[in-house]
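Recall the central idea of this unit: under ordinary conditions, the amino acid sequence of a chain determines the structure it adopts. In this exercise we apply that idea directly, starting from the sequence alone.
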Amino acid sequence: MMHPLSLGGSDLHVTPICLGTMTFGEQVAEADAHAILDAAVERGVNFIDTAEMYAVPAREATFGATEAIIGRWLAARPGMRQRIVLASKVAGPARNMPWIRAGSGMTAQDIVASCEASLRRLQTDVIDLYQIHWPERHAPAFGQLYYDPAKETSQTSIHAQLQALDSLVRAGKVRHIGLSNETPWGVLEFVRLAQQHGLPRVVSVQNPYCLVNRSWDNAMDESCHRLGVSLLAYSPLGFGLLTGKYDQHAPHEAGAPQDGRIARYESVRAQRWGRPEALAAARRYNQLARDHGLTPVQLALAFCYRSWRVASTILGVTSLAQLHDDLDAWSVQLAPELLAEIDAIRWQMRDPAQ
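Accordingly, the structure predicted from this sequence is:
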């Protein structure tokens, strides 16, 4: 049974499994999305995560669609809003998505305007956890490995971002704030400035965490543990690599299942999840699962579910069957010997989807 826990010492009590929604409005039709939301809540999940830029892959035609789908779900179910913790995100700099906002930055005014637009789409008065989707400053993310100071284009200081978020908290439109795709320095600076100026303190960071990407374990784990900032782990199945469905055929090959994002969308394959090294490592973990009488999904999810580093694991599903399989994996426990074998594979193959 899942017991809610406090995010970063805040008054937000969330289940250790969160329903991610970025497929809603692209791979998942609205009626199916509502059925998935209903089933997740029925199974005890109280934490729903979305973002203004969703659905994914990001397109002008589907910008904001996911929030609108959730908003109509809430509107049709009186009392549901009080039962869930609702999280959303403001997109960072445009990243070649001019439909999100004019200009290439993320100003304080952009933060406020994006939040107010999200509130309208979600048909709610308050967002429980409002997160910055990726840093406003230049920082390695989404498969970039190295920080390059020559690429710095920051226009809005972290202090100014916090002041904008503070205005939303004071107005009652946001309860708590968080980050996503952040670095140790970024988390520390947000916390330091909040303490120095009496501004809202981040309670969580939403970063990738899975068997083929444990970059969190290199400095972010200690930093956030000592600062009291919770990890929301996304992509626990490595965009499908850790389900085993690509063990026989790579996503781009004939014979591979075409229902997953990495197979359907070339833009996804071009990122970290599409690296041959990531698939090779995933196949090692998937075979390890079978050797121990588990499915690849059970191994990958149990690794996240039971890690002391993870407060809540974000599931992105496209069907009710997938949702139930992922939730059923909550009961799986990994023996210390199996965890040691996982670490041994990581020692050899490191984090190929970083």
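The chain has a mean pLDDT of 95.
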